[in-house]
Amino acid sequence: MDKETMRMKLVYWSGIIKEANSSGMKISRWCEMNQISHRKYYYWHKKVMHDTYTKAVETGLMPASTDNTLQATLPAVPEFAELAMADGDMGPRHRKDPEISIRYGDFMINVDAEFSERELEKVLRVVSHVK
Fold this sequence. Notes:
Elements: H1 3-22, H2 27-33, H3 38-58, E1 100-104, E2 107-111, H4 117-129
Antiparallel strand pairs: 1-2
Helix pairs in contact: 1-3
């Protein structure tokens, strides 16, 4: 399969996977209702995830891994980076409670209503790979 055909299929299946994940149904049920075999769904899921990971490494969103785990590339001691505020940002917003809280292993992520969906997707993608 040439690169352009593969790219088009990855875009297509990325949309299918997003639709299935946002449906609220179990993937097996969603596949059944949409007449997609489980094998085909998970085959393309793996391809899309690999492509997403590769792009994240290429763009610097994630560190490269030599043994297919991020553990090997994570520093032994946490590193902290100062984040610059966007122009027009007046500093931290003080609220008693966040809009939502997400607990994943040892992580707690508090999300305000103003937080962009795209940035949240990036954060969750990176956190899901940390062991």
